[in-house]
Amino acid sequence: MASSPLFNSFLPKPTTAAPSPPSTSLSFSAKYVPFTAITSSSDSSPTAESYSLDEIVYRSRTGGLLDVQHDMAALKQFDGQYWRSLFDSRVGKTTWPYGSGVWSKKEWVLPEISDDDIVSAFEGNTNLFWAERFGKVHLDVYDLWVKHCGISHTGSFKDLGMTVLVSQVNRLRKMKRPLVGVGCASTGDTSAALSAYCAAANIPSIVFLPANKISMAQLVQPIANGAFVLSIDTDFDGCMKLIRQVTSELPIYLANSLNSLRLEGQKTAAIEILQQFDWEVPDWVIVPGGNLGNIYAFYKGFNMCQELGLVDRIPRLVCAQAANANPLYLYYKSGWQEFQPVRASTTFASAIQIGDPVSIDRAVFALKNSNGIVEEATEEELMDAMALADSTGMFICPHTGVALTALTKLRKSGIIGPTDRTVVVSTAHGLKFTQSKIDYHSRQIKDMSCRLANPPVQVKSDFGAVMDVLKNYLDSRAS
Ligand SMILES: Cc1ncc(COP(=O)(O)O)c(C=O)c1O
């Protein structure tokens, strides 16, 4: 069991000198392999099918997922203490590109890219917030943390993956590969990140968005960043199908998380959590899931840290889904019998309104190998959880409300214990989803009691009237 957060903060830090970085990161390498080569770990022979990261390839020969495989033997030439000290020595620096939480782990991400090709907004290094009041008062958990991945350049964790993908595209274009732009289907956040990083590197970006299914704040981001925006009369799954057809016809690089490069950046959030706990491993990490790339990215980050000796175990992972878009939850509940895509219904957690997740196999692998759990949240549960968390000083997005609902349920059933160190991953900034909060607090949601609504009190511009209202309020707080 991890020690209490308070106790931790008073522990003396070991005074190890920062190691010098490996003489050149070119001694490390990575390549694409079929995802099945990762899952069949009993087979230690090198996979026959592999591709350079400089090739433009998204699927294996049989049409399956790909994964980025690092040369682990080369990384293992250095021990866990070496990597811990190296990563720690880079935090908070402005030295290019290590000021980024992603590129401070460059040797584990894209070891062969030149620093000059990297497109970065110094993403990552996000706040790991001790949710003391929310945990103690509302859940009887004493070691609860929220990893605010949404306090980032474009307001979501997507920046972590997009810096990697766009950097690689930048490199390919400099190598004169015929790429006219980068495209994605999006439930909002991917397009925001893609368009920002592409704009920074002067690369055209093309985004397919489901019409009327994303928030205004999300829609305005790619528009402002100069992307070519197609608002298509379908849902995310429909947009995904179209972008895959388009990118197989035109030299447009596919930026969806089908593309395993993105997950290399996203996995650094897991490494960062360990680093922020001085390399102590939390008991639980709860991640909201839609297309299901991120839950695998977390697994991959934790697993690499264990394999390379930075830590000796990994946390149990929980994937939290909206009940209105819950194909993974249903699959898990069936005892992993048979996967059935669903038609996702409207959810306030709009970025995870996905019925046919591309990374289903990745998610199942991550959950099975981390003794993981899948939970779900109804609309009322996720909105109440968001409102409750906000009332303790957070300002979270509805997806984080889904994750907090999963925590609440697992705490109630006793699966998560009161002193378990638990991290809830907050995937986007609450300011991107203000309309859902406005609807909730003005009780504008059909069939929802909005029991924690806190609407403003209308009062006349009159001292007596203001005093009456205030006295009532103070009396109600005192009782
Ligand atoms: C805010 C937010 N949370 C969660 C997710 C889910 O991530 P994944 O699709 O990798 O499961 C997304 C992805 O679109 C997102 O934008």
UniProtKB/TrEMBL annotation:
Cofactors demanded by this protein: pyridoxal 5'-phosphate
Sample GO molecular function, one term: threonine synthase activity
PROSITE patterns (alphabetical): DEHYDRATASE_SER_THR (PS00165)
Pathway info: Amino-acid biosynthesis; L-threonine biosynthesis; L-threonine from L-aspartate: step 5/5
Residues the record lists as N6-(pyridoxal phosphate)lysine modifications: 158
One of the record's GO cellular component terms: chloroplast
GO biological process: threonine biosynthetic process
Entry-linked InterPro entries: Cys_Synth/Cystath_Beta-Synth, Ser/Thr_deHydtase_PyrdxlP-BS, Thr_synthase-like, TrpB-like_PALP, TrpB-like_PALP_sf
Record keywords: Amino-acid biosynthesis, Pyridoxal phosphate, Threonine biosynthesis
Enzyme class, spelled out: lyase
EC number of this enzyme: 4.2.3.1
Residue ranges of domain Tryptophan synthase beta chain-like PALP in the record: 120-427
Pfam families, sorted: PALP
PANTHER family: CYSTATHIONINE BETA-SYNTHASE
Record-linked NCBIfam families: thrC (TIGR00260)
Family to which this protein belongs: Belongs to the threonine synthase family.
Annotated protein name in UniProt: threonine synthase
The organism of origin for this protein: Coffea arabica
